[in-house]
Specification:
Blueprint lengths: L11 H15 L1 H8 L5 H24 L1
């Protein structure tokens, strides 16, 4: 359970902003979206490999400059 302490005189908008930030940090929304559909393990692995190749390509380009 996420608790957001609200100081006296603090606006509701600021408290909502804090709540949204805490939700993002915990990854609750991301996990819920991920659980809505099933992804095969082979597809997950392929995504990880493709992301690693992409990052390596970017780092190689920066090192060449």
């Amino acid at each position: 359970m996420i608790i957001v302490p609200v100081k006296e005189g603090e606006s509701i908008d600021r408290a909502l902003k804090k709540l949204k930030r805490k939700f993002e940090k915990t990854g609750v929304v991301k996990e819920l979206r991920e659980r809505q559909k099933f992804t095969k393990p082979s597809v997950k692995h392929r995504d990880v490999v493709n992301r690693a190749i992409y990052i390596q390509h970017i780092q190689d380009e920066e090192a060449a400059m």
